[in-house]
């Protein structure tokens, strides 16, 4: 399958938009949305969800501090979905060989966008001294141009000129280097676990380990229960041709709802007003500190 010109155009526009969304609105600027949108454009939303969801889990514990740059998981997802669908590439293999490397390389274009954007920042400083409010607004909007181009141009060039290179690599991985291609496919499936490991490294797991244990056990029990019911239902349905009911496993939405319920309980517990004695005994310069020394009310 060849990537059509209108698909390249739409993917390029989305690549330029997604960084602006990530900076301003934070709605569609996530890998899972990049996978869905790219999958819709390429006509294979299943592959888009696999790659986008896998990339979302891979960067689950990755964040930025201050002005630090991070890997551009959205651009990596866009290219991985496009080439995976166009070349018939295994989604897990595309995640390991395209999404992650491209996302890492895009750090350089992110730095270039930040560097270029200082030009408009200095123009805004000059406009502030002149009290030119319209000029401030214009230069603020101009600052979006380097950000969008830093993603749109590399994605466009990769889609236009990179198809042949990627096809040769895929053919080589599935031919002479099949052992390496299979290994990269396994690595792509393991990458989401790496994201969870990074996230658990930063979460206060020691403080809230009971919730972690309960969530793990509930998930394991539900999966086992529903897998058994699904297998039993499938076997029973095979005995009667008129039995048309389908059985499916527990959806992730149900598991997410369980986690949301526990999160709500924890929020209500942590936001409950503390007694006067506890507040006075654990107060340091007007801030509440718990038993582990963590300041509770230092953010608003």
From TrEMBL:
Keywords of the record: Cell membrane, Membrane, Phosphotransferase system, Sugar transport, Transmembrane, Transmembrane helix, Transport
Renumbered residue ranges of the record's region Disordered: 272-300
GO biological process, one term: phosphoenolpyruvate-dependent sugar phosphotransferase system
Primary residence: membrane
Composition bias type Acidic residues, residue spans: 288-300
Spans traversing the lipid bilayer: 31-51, 140-163, 183-202, 209-226, 246-265
Gene Ontology CC terms: plasma membrane
Pfam families assigned to the protein according to its UniProt record, in alphabetical order: EII-Sor (PF03609)
Name this polypeptide is given: PTS sugar transporter subunit IIC
């Amino acid at each position: 399958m060849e990537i059509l010109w209108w698909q390249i155009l739409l993917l390029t526009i989305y690549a330029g938009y997604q960084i602006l969304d990530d900076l301003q609105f934070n709605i569609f600027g996530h890998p899972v949305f990049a996978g869905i949108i790219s999958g819709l454009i390429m006509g294979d939303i299943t592959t888009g969800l696999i790659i986008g969801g896998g990339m979302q889990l891979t960067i689950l514990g990755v964040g930025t501090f201050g002005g630090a740059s991070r890997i551009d998981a959205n651009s990596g997802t866009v290219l991985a979905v496009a080439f995976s669908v166009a070349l018939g590439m295994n989604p897990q293999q595309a995640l390991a060989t395209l999404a992650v490397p491209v996302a890492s390389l895009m750090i350089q274009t992110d730095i270039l966008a930040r560097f270029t954007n200082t030009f408009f920042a200095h123009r805004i400083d000059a406009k502030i001294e002149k009290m030119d409010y319209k000029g401030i607004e214009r230069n603020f909007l101009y600052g979006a141009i380097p950000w969008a181009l830093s993603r749109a141009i590399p994605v466009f060039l990769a889609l236009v000129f990179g198809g042949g290179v990627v096809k040769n690599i895929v053919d080589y991985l599935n031919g002479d280097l099949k052992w390496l291609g299979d290994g990269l496919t396994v690595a792509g499936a393991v990458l989401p676990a790496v994201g969870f490991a990074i996230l658990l490294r930063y979460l206060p797991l020691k403080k809230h380990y009971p919730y972690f244990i309960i969530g793990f056990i509930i998930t394991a029990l539900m999966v086992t229960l529903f897998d058994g019911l699904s297998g039993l239902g499938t076997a029973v349905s095979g005995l009667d041709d008129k039995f048309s009911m389908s059985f499916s496993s527990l959806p992730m939405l149900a598991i997410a709802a369980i986690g949301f319920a526990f999160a709500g309980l924890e929020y209500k517990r942590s936001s409950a007003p503390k007694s006067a004695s506890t507040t006075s005994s654990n107060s340091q310069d007007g801030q509440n500190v718990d038993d582990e020394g963590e300041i509770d009310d230092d953010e608003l």
